[in-house]
Design a protein that fits this description.
By secondary structure, the protein is α/β, with parallel strands linked by helices. 39% of the residues lie in helices and 21% in strands. The chain has 4 domains: 275 residues, Aldolase class I (TIM Barrel); 29 residues, no CATH class; 61 residues, no CATH class; 113 residues, Double Stranded RNA Binding Domain. It binds 3-methyl-2-oxobutanoic acid and zinc ion. Pfam families: HCS_D2 (PF22617), HMGL-like (PF00682), LeuA_dimer (PF08502).
């Protein structure tokens, strides 16, 4: 039997730190359920000290997840650790992940602390976390640029204080595989009590090397990899879970370890994360991109037809690519609807809530006869968004678009001022709609991105629109889905406006936040 490689998913924490990717409590719970079906070992659910909302989101994930370990991030500060411990109280298995920066530049410029003070904070933090759980992870932030002697000193001390996992983050994505692998090996050799803890890695993708660096570390003894679905994460993102997992499985001959992942859940989970965050997956993305298993060139097709392995090293079905499965239709009853949603990990807190969502499903099934899992997920995202305290809501939209005429839009929005009407002309129906909405809400934000994807195939498919807005350096993503893409676009714009109006989350790693 080979060693187990622990898959630690941080989509809900580091993934969420990606500008525009913030998630609501219910969205986090839906993703956590999907991660549990994927059978990841640890779900990092968030940073409970950030706000009451973040605390409640971690708490909700801790309650909803049955088997998987749920982890909360905490700076090496007593109040953060107590908050994480409290949020995780109801988790079946709880982990506290505490961190403090150890690179000369971070200690000097960000923390304004000496190495000895940093070490003392780290030890105190780990001891405090052990009051809440036996499962404590410690990260020396910016380890990729830290001095090795200091890393050895601090890691030895935190193991002594009770840390059970030592995570080596390449916070700024500076490392390269051979060097990072060698660092892991030397740390394991030099730290006298290294055998008392599991070594983990957490690599960022600034040089496009996050997966390569993580795998180099695995070859040198790391037995936990921190990663995210679709490689979501700060700046260029984190190591992509699907790539790590499939590399270890496909190249068993190279990696001396195994994972316990249900790979058929990879694509559904990837689609869910993309739907909820509004970060589309590029078509040529490994494993989860739409073209990852498409063989278009005639020569490849011929090869594949004769013998699959000629051009394929993995099977599409193995990672969850199946033809869209029609799960429900116009004649499906309430019980079938409820049962399918239960399978997707969605439970309703009341009959009234179920009835409201069921009615939305019926409306959709009237317009679109075949309703797939992806449609249900988009519908749930929309209902969830409405349930949050929405300040602006779409009441009605009318657009006119005619050859030779200037497109125009008229919109009625429900706002704190009651129902407000706005009208505008634009270069197209979508542009006119956005201008009409802006005439009411006046956010004066800048549109950074507008993208449309069809959720499933066919002209009756729902269009899923992502709108990214920026105001004063703050970036938010809004999503909307509808069988009419102009309406989907208006919903996405309004969703982004609501996020701009919501309070901003605290980031655990920025200077000033220690
Ligand atoms: O990138 C990083 O250093 C982190 C730490 C909080 C582990 O995300
Ligand atoms: Zn990170």
């Amino acid at each position: 039997m080979t060693d187990k490689l622990i898959i630690f998913d941080t989509t809900l924490r580091d993934g969420e730190q990606s500008p525009g990717a913030s998630m609501t409590r219910d969205e986090k719970v839906r993703i956590a359920k999907s991660l549990e079906r994927l059978r990841v070992d640890v779900i990092e659910a968030g940073f409970p000290a950030a706000s009451q909302g973040d605390f409640e989101a971690v708490q909700a994930v801790a309650r909803a997840v049955k088997e998987t370990t749920v982890c909360g991030l905490a700076r090496a500060l007593a109040q953060d650790i107590d908050r994480a411990g409290e949020a995780l109280k109801e988790a079946r298995r709880a982990r506290i992940h505490t961190f403090i920066a150890t690179s000369p530049i971070h200690m000097r410029q960000k923390l304004r602390m000496t190495p000895d003070q940093v070490l003392e904070h780290a030890v105190e933090a780990v001891k405090r976390a052990r009051r809440f759980t036996d499962d404590v992870e410690f990260s020396p932030e910016d380890a990729g640029r830290s001095e090795e002697d200091f890393l050895c000193r601090i890691l030895e001390a935190v193991i002594e204080a009770g840390a059970t996992t030592l995570n080596i983050p390449d916070t700024v994505g500076y490392s390269v595989p051979e060097q990072f692998g060698a660092t892991l090996r030397r740390l394991r050799e030099r730290i006298p009590n290294a055998d008392k803890a599991i070594f983990s890695v957490h690599c960022h993708n600034d040089l496009g090397l996050a997966v390569a660096n993580s795998l180099a570390a695995v070859l040198n003894g790391a037995r936990q990899v921190e990663c995210t679905i679709n490689g979501l994460g700060e700046r260029a993102g984190n190591a992509a879970l699907e790539e790590i997992v499939m590399a270890v499985i496909t190249r068993k001959d190279v990696f001396p370890c195994h994972v316990d992942i249900d790979t058929r859940e990879i694509v559904p989970c990837s689609k869910l994360v993309s739907n909820i965050t509004g970060f589309p997956v590029q078509p040529n993305k490994a494993i989860v991109g739409a073209n990852a298993f498409a063989h278009e060139a005639g020569i490849h097709q011929d090869g594949i037809l004769k013998h699959r392995e000629t051009y394929e090293i993995m099977r599409a079905e193995e990672v969850g690519w199946t033809a869209n499965r029609m799960v429900l239709g116009k004649h499906s009853g309430r019980n079938a609807f409820k049962a399918r949603l239960l399978e997707l990990g969605v439970e309703f807190s009341s009959e009234a809530e179920l009835n409201a969502v069921f009615q939305r499903f019926k409306d959709l099934a009237d317009k679109k006869h075949e309703v797939f899992d992806e449609d249900l997920q988009a519908l749930l995202t929309e209902v969830g968004v409405e349930a949050e305290d929405e300040r602006v809501k779409l009441v009605a939209l009318k657009v006119c678009s005619e050859t030779g005429k200037v497109p125009c839009a008229q919109v009625t929005l429900r706002t704190e001022r009651g129902e407000v009407y706005g009208a505008a002309e634009g270069s197209g129906a979508v542009d006119a709609s956005f201008r009409a909405i802006e005439a009411v809400v006046a956010t004066q934000s800048q549109l950074l991105l507008y993208s449309v994807n069809n959720i499933t195939t066919g002209t009756d498919a729902q269009g899923e629109v992502t709108v990214r807005l920026e105001k004063g350096g703050r970036i938010v993503n809004g999503q909307g889905a509808d069988t009419d893409i102009v309406i989907a676009s208006a919903k996405a714009y309004i969703n982004a406006v609501n996020k701009l109006l919501a309070p901003q989350k605290m980031h655990p790693q920025v200077p000033g936040n220690v």
